[in-house]
Amino acid sequence: MNIGCILSVDGYSYHPIRSFAGKAGQTVKMLIQRSPEPSSQQEIAVVPKNFYPSTMFLQAQTASIKLIEQDGKKVGYIHIWSKAADTYQQQLQDELIYGRLKNAAVIA
Fold first, then answer.
1. Most buried in the list 50, 65, 85, 102, measured by CB within 10 Å?
2. Mean pLDDT, all residues of the chain
């Protein structure tokens, strides 16, 4: 047995995908074992959540925005996670014109 493993989910053998399929937003009971000692078994409750990559990328892009003071100027930073859709470009444009990066220095 590996250290720190999932033994079962809702009383059934653990499977990385099937154990949580269709259970988003519902409480799921997991039996875990934290060490090789059987006494380290513990039941915990978790609530699985659906993740949508495009939403996650937009949230991460927004969370990355910083204004950094350097040499008396405010330098803007934003991590662009994807350029696969217009929404990412639009978010960048909105931040530069109306958002937290509007006061950043223009460096050419």
1. 65
2. 88
Q: Where along the chain do its domains lie? A: 5-46, 53-97
Cβ-contact 93, 86 below 8 angstroms: no
Q: How far apart, in whole angstroms, are the C-alpha atoms of residue 77 and residue 45?
A: 38
Coil, helix or strand at residue 69: strand
Stretches where the chain sits below pLDDT 70 are 1-3, 84, 106-108
User: For residue 86, what are its two tokens?
Assistant: 């217009």
Residue type, position 33, single letter? Q
CB atoms within 10 A of CB 22: 7
Neighbours of 8 (CB within 10 A): 14
